[in-house]
Structures are given as C-alpha cells and as structure tokens.
Amino acid sequence: MGWVLKVFISWSGEKAKDFALELRDWLPFVIHDLAPWVSDADIDSGTMSMQDIHRQLDQTKYGIICTTAENQAKPWINYEAGALWKSINHESRVVPLLIDLEMSDVQSPLRNFHSRIITHRSTRQAEVRKLIESLNKARATPINAAVLEESFLTQWPKMETIIDRIAKNNYAYKARMSDVDRKLEDIHQTVLKIAEEQRAAASTTIDSLDEVLDRKSTLAYGSFSEQTAGLRAKLEAVANSSLIARGFNNRVHVERVDSRNYVVYSADLLPDEVKRALSDAAKAVAHPVNFEYLLTMSDEPDEDPTHL
Question: What is the pTM of this model?
C-alpha cells in the first residue's frame, strides 16, 4: 500500500459523533490517499481502551477535533487535544472544527489551536476548503491546487447536506448545563476516572509486584506507603506553588502511573521553570522519576455557567 495521511478525528457526544463518522467517509472522496480514523465507541463511556487511542495517535499525522457546545469542556476531548498536539508536534495540524460554536465561545486549551468554523451557512464552504487545503499541505506530495479545487467542489454538495442535517437535528443535550446537570457530570467523570484506575491496577504484572516488594524491603517500616502516597501530593503542591509565585492562574493535577512515572495535567503549557521545580522535587526519592506533560481542562467547575 502506498503512502497515506493518517487523520485522527476526535469527538464526544452524539452530535460530534454523527459529524465525525460522516466526515471520515467524506474526506477520502476529496483527497483519495487520506486514511481518517474515528472510534465508533464514545471514549467518555469507557468502552475504548487507552492503548487503542495511543496506538492510533502514534500513527497520526493530522488531528481534527469535532467540537460542539456540549463537548468542548469534556475532560476526554481536551485530553485528546493535548495528546494530539504532543504526538503530532505541529500546531497547525491539530484543528478544532466548530460545529455549533463561535470562536469567542471556545475554551482553553482548544483556544490554543487555529479552529475552523462551520456554524454559519454563508462561510462554512470557505472554512471547509481551508481545512482541505491544510490537509493537502500535510501530504508528502501535495495535490495540484486546481485539481484539489475541482475535487472539493464536486464533493461539497454532499458535505453541505450533511452539515445542514446535523444543524437541524435536535440532539439530546443542552448547550448550557444547569447546576444540577453539572454536578451529575462531575460524578460521571469521577466514576470514569475510578474505573480507569481500576483497569490500570488490574493490569499490574508479577514483575512490578516484585519490584514493589524489593523497594519496600529497603525502607524502614511504614515509610514505603508514606513515600509513595505523599510524593504525588508533594509534586502537585510544588508545581502549583511555583505557578502562583510566578503569577500564573493555571493549576496542575499530578497522577501517579507507577513509582517511576507521573503524568502532569494542566490547562496551559507549563513554563520550563515549573518543570525544573518538579524535577528537583522528585530527587527526594532514590530512583529516577519521569514526567509526561499533557494539556487538559481544569477539574474545577466553572463558576460562570455561560462558559460551559
């Protein structure tokens, strides 16, 4: 099989899923050697493993984030945005596609990317054309502009029909969540997080248990659990104190993967000084500690419901 451009299409919620599946089927008619990938299973439901997601991200050269009023603040949609940015390492190749939003409605971290807006019928053709042109530039050998334009104009009526249908569909969600709905969503996300942690714990191998026992034997009684439980909290406190000292409003959340690996989530890119502070704090333990930095939305609920 010849060279293809792997395109990762991210979504959450019924409206975004509907559009993502249609977009996946439509794109190869315009640029024939595209290989769009989109999961048929909602990531928020927990039915798709992180291993599947990471495997697809490793092969991806371009990311499209199907963004709606419903999903833009979802933790998973923002996790994927950060993972795409890190995997592709090319900001112009991660594109939020705004289905029912204005640019001014977009929240961090999605606001860090250059979005395309298909909310308005009068401008959506031009916006989708720019997306197609961007995809073409990401190819190893771009298609001639005149040939690409002819292909796009031939296929555009079908896409316009798709967008019109989705715009008229009364999907089962509220663009603005009530306080009660927000609390229910917080509970839902907490349950998903616990389920993911339980799946990770269930995958622990015998070798890793042996490593834990070896580590425990080198420590005084009681210090093992205190060290492993306290390091995560210490690292989080160090990072947030460093941000406050430098006048940043951003806050981080630190998750322990295992004794040597931690994931640092933040709404915006962290300054190098904060990363150095984390590395210095990690020297308190006897073994090296590795950090992975990912962009995500803050876990703190927004006080202004118009920003949901």
Answer: 0.55
Identity of the residue numbered 273: E
Same-domain check for residues 124 and 182: no
Residue that finishes a domain, picked among 123, 150, 168: 168
Nearest to 289 by CA among 298, 301, 279: 279
Residues 6+ apart with CB under 8 A from 78: 109, 110, 295, 296, 297
Task: Please give the structure tokens belonging to residue 155.
Answer: 């296929």
Distance separating alpha carbons of residues 125 and 159, to the nearest angstrom: 9
pLDDT per residue as tens digits for the range 236-248: 888 888 787 777 7
Single out the residue of 86, 44, 46 nearest to residue 63, CA to CA: 86
